[in-house]
């Protein structure tokens, strides 16, 4: 089938129907083949498929595809930018110094990184030199992210840093302008927060500084989660 025909055949959105015609092989080989909403039955199937993915230029240099860590039924889904060196080596997101700080931030409001959150990234393969993913790379990987969100179906999505905000919502505002604000995206409640790596570079706890701002934001997230849990 010519590429043009294939694209138009699957160029639709907004239904849970799964196309039988598009195959894993076609999807994983080309960013031109959209991944239909509802394509994956579960996260294990998605993970297995991601591990074979060649949809963008990040594939050749990766060691591991980094899909997620945490609880697939968590109430909070956290999205980062992309894997760094430790993540590429281990196959798990947010396990370097920034990840350890993220776990401490969560623990400060009694959120457990094993049970209360599911963590993933905009792109699942490491950009060389930890550069920001390109728009093409983010777009090629985004359908996997959308499927992760659909399957986890969290109460709250946290977007760590400007790349995560832009990658999911398209909002190009600076992170310092929108951090701590609740955003509605596709019926999900999202909050942009500072990236933990930024806090490592700005460790002052003084009021108004990044670390202090994160403390305000994570307390607001905890309060919102408690509120949502009381709604039947
Ligand atoms: S970053 Fe995403 S789209 Fe690109 S090769 Fe990895 S899994 Fe595939």
TrEMBL record:
Origin superkingdom: Bacteria
GO biological process terms held by the UniProt record: DNA repair
Reactions that this protein is recorded to catalyse: Hydrolyzes single-stranded DNA or mismatched double-stranded DNA and polynucleotides, releasing free uracil
Any Pfam family the entry gives: UDG
SUPFAM superfamilies xrefs: Uracil-DNA glycosylase-like
GO MF terms, alphabetically ordered: 4 iron, 4 sulfur cluster binding; metal ion binding; uracil DNA N-glycosylase activity
InterPro entries (alphabetical): UDG_Type-4/5, Ura-DNA_glyco_family4, Uracil-DNA_glycosylase-like, Uracil-DNA_glycosylase-like_sf
Enzyme class: hydrolase
Transmembrane segments: none
Ranges of residues in domain Uracil-DNA glycosylase-like: 67-219
Keywords: 4Fe-4S, DNA damage, DNA repair, Hydrolase, Iron, Iron-sulfur, Metal-binding
EC nos: 3.2.2.27
Family designation: Belongs to the uracil-DNA glycosylase (UDG) superfamily. Type 4 (UDGa) family.
Descriptive protein name: Type-4 uracil-DNA glycosylase
Organism: Acaryochloris marina (strain MBIC 11017)
